[in-house]
């Protein structure tokens, strides 16, 4: 089973693209180190305070794939500099 998530986030304290990329790099690196998911910035690369992050996991068990993505989303919520606005989950 393949589960993907598009996560739209707001970065309120960012005053430049450099600050935004610094926050995103830290978040993406920590996600890659903690969870068995692929992650990348999908949209809004040129906006200071907005981003969309894509997450994908593959597992033979649907429940484990769902649990992995939910844990990753909770991990994203733990960062005080990010606010998760919208999340779209899709099974492929």
Automatic annotation (TrEMBL):
Transmembrane region(s): none
Domain of life: Bacteria
Pfam families, per database record: DUF503
InterPro entries the record matches: DUF503, TT1725-like_sf
PANTHER family recorded: DUF503 DOMAIN-CONTAINING PROTEIN (PTHR36441:SF1), HYPOTHETICAL CYTOSOLIC PROTEIN (PTHR36441)
Descriptive protein name: DUF503 family protein
UniProt source species: Halobacillus locisalis
């Amino acid at each position: 089973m393949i589960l993907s998530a598009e996560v739209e986030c707001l970065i309120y304290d960012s005053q430049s693209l450099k600050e935004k990329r610094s926050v995103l790099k830290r978040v993406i690196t920590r996600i890659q180190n903690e969870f068995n998911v692929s992650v990348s910035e999908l949209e809004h690369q040129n906006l200071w305070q907005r981003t969309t992050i894509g997450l994908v996991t593959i597992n033979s068990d649907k429940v484990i794939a769902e649990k992995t993505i939910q844990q990753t989303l909770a991990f994203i919520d733990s960062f005080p500099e990010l606010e998760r606005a919208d999340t779209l989950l899709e099974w492929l």
